Amino acid sequence: MPDVFPPTKRSQIMSKIGQRNTKPEIIVRKLLHRMGYRFRLHRQDLPGSPDIVLPKYKTVIFVHGCFWHGHSECPRAKLPETNQEFWENKIEKNRLRDRRNAANLAKLTWQVITVWQCELKDMEALCKRIRHALSG
Ligand SMILES: [Zn+2]
User: Where does 15-133 show beta strands of DSSP type E?
Assistant: First the structure.
């Protein structure tokens, strides 16, 4: 059976599907790689087992989903209409844990960079922010 979409339309659809399945963390890893940074993943021996670790810069990067980690004033962090209390508690717990991890890492003199999912809309700005943080 012939495809109902012309090839260009089809490839557009397929690339969208690909994007939807791409986790923010993988996007950030690819960006760092392109920027020439070397990193390690999910170091269990550090508080919060950070997503990305750059030992040379003594820096860790957490990639946070705006909703689950309660990105303040972010439209993506808007709570669903129902069960608001449930979500609020859940997300507040995540935020507390994030803060505790960041504080513990700071005590061990690690720099902590938090990348929010919504920041991936502007890769150039994100790239600049990371470069700036790592050059300090
Ligand atoms: Zn956000």
Answer: 40-41, 52-54, 59-64, 111-116
